[in-house]
Amino acid sequence: MNILVIGGGGREHAVIRKIKENPAVQTIWAWPGNGGIALDAVCVGKSATDLDGICDFAKNNPVDFAVVTPDDPLILGCVDRLEALGVPCFGPDKAAARIEGSKSFAKELMKKYGIPTASYEVFDDAENALAFLDGCGVPVVIKADGPALGKGVIIANTRDEARQAVRDMMEERVFGDSGTRVVIEEFLTGPEVSVLAFTDGKTIVPMVSSMDHKRALDGDAGLNTGGMGTVAPNPYYTPEIAEICMKTIFIPTIRAMRAEGCPFKGCLYFGLMITPDGPKVIEYNCRFGDPETQVVLPLLESDLLTIMQAVRNETLTPELVRFREQSACCVILASDGYPKKYATGFPIEMPETLPCGAQVFIAGAKRAADQLVTAGGRVLGVTATANDLRTAVENAYLAADTIHFENARKRSDIGARALKALR
Ligand code: AMP
Ligand code: GLY
């Protein structure tokens, strides 16, 4: 079988590694992949949003199955286009990808079907939004409706900050069209949990839970990033909480999508907050999380491609999805300055094999003169698995410490909060 994987980050590297375990797989093309993925797949194309290019490639090459991983091509309808050409795909179609592409769509879905989430109002008009803020408490959360590279969420601690956020989004258009509509939402508290789930639109099978570390600096200080590290499982996600989530969130969500005429097929990402009133949805993503995937897939015992085909063919069963009873930790090495300005082009030195059986997933690197050099904010992730979380965290750091590039920066406390919760 020949597989086309759309995307080019650490998440895609983890997906490709896992797909490669299937002996029937011959060629994997990564579109566009990156310099590190090039060791595991054939990199083609330049951009994951070049749908015309992707479709031309699928017409001219024997692609048996495609995996569309990032949000942008999914929201643009990459799966619809490839399926129309007869290429079976893993990933939601355009209508289902709205669950991430439009926050107001997601919020209205939850309201209509009674799925627990923060209470909210949607505004298309800055004046009405500003008037609403006069009567609401703080902190309050302001969200741009459309995709905003993970920056479209402002937690305002004062009314002035909230007003400023509304003006920035709706009048100054700092997120372009994504901010013409805003969602103003109740501020929730509690530990956050990420749950990725396979679903074929009828059956939903959650994967092992995980915890992201979104802030740039130790102690959850600094700016929000795409994620500086992850651990799995998440100790706050107890079997009791999991059962409540299945009943009140996961099953109702896939039923709701079906009832709305847009069944979701692919990986549905639930960003949850375990509030004093129970688990609530913070956000849905229409895809695997990054860097959640880098801890979840290494714990998957079953064959990933088989699961993805079952999702596509609507034959998913819980028995197809088995996880090891182990823990995993992924530590991200970023370029100093990320998520703001940073320099790139530094050679990456790493041993041929990492200690402790750890794996490296390359996110932002390219080949230059037969050397791997940095080419992004998040450069790579180092994942270790072990029988317990403490060992997984220790081993991930031991392995990460053997990798060097000039402006490397990592958090030193990935997993610390999870270990504290276990005590
Ligand atoms: P998002 O981009 O939707 O993942 O939001 C980014 C982060 O903002 C989340 O991971 C939460 O930490 C925080 N957040 C979003 N919505 C809320 C909310 N209603 N209450 C508290 N925190 C929130
Ligand atoms: N790690 C968060 C995300 O993938 O959106």
Q: What is the CA-atom radius of gyration, in angstroms?
A: 21 Å
Small-molecule binders here are: adenosine monophosphate, glycine
DSSP strand (E) fraction? 25-35%
Query: Helix amount, in percent?
Result: 25-40%
DSSP E strands, number: 23
Please state the overall shape, judged from the principal axes of the Cα atoms: globular
Summed over residues and divided by their number, the pLDDT gives a mean of 96
* Poorly predicted tracts of residues: none
* SSE class: alpha+beta
Count up the helices.
Answer: 13
Q: Could you give a short account of the major beta sheet? A: 6 strands, antiparallel
How far apart, in Å, are the first and last alpha carbons? 46 Å
Describe it.
The structure is a single chain. The chain contains 13 helices and 23 strands. Helix content is 30%, strand content 26%. Helix 7 packs antiparallel against helix 8 (159-171). With 423 residues, the protein is α+β, with helices and mostly antiparallel strands. The strands form six sheets. Strands 12, 15, 18, 19, 22 and 23 form a six-stranded antiparallel β-sheet that branches. The longest helix has 21 residues, at 239-259. The chain has helices spanning 10-19, 51-60, 71-76, 78-84, 94-101, 103-112, 126-134, 159-171, 239-259, 293-296, 304-313, 389-400, 416-422; strands at 2-7, 27-32, 42-43, 65-68, 89-90, 120-123, 140-144, 153-156, 182-186, 192-199, 204-206, 211-212, 215-217, 221-224, 229-232, 266-275, 278-285, 327-335, 359-362, 365-368, 371-374, 378-386, 408-409. Adenosine monophosphate is lined by residues 118, 141, 150, 153, 155, 185-188, 192, 214, 271, 282-283.
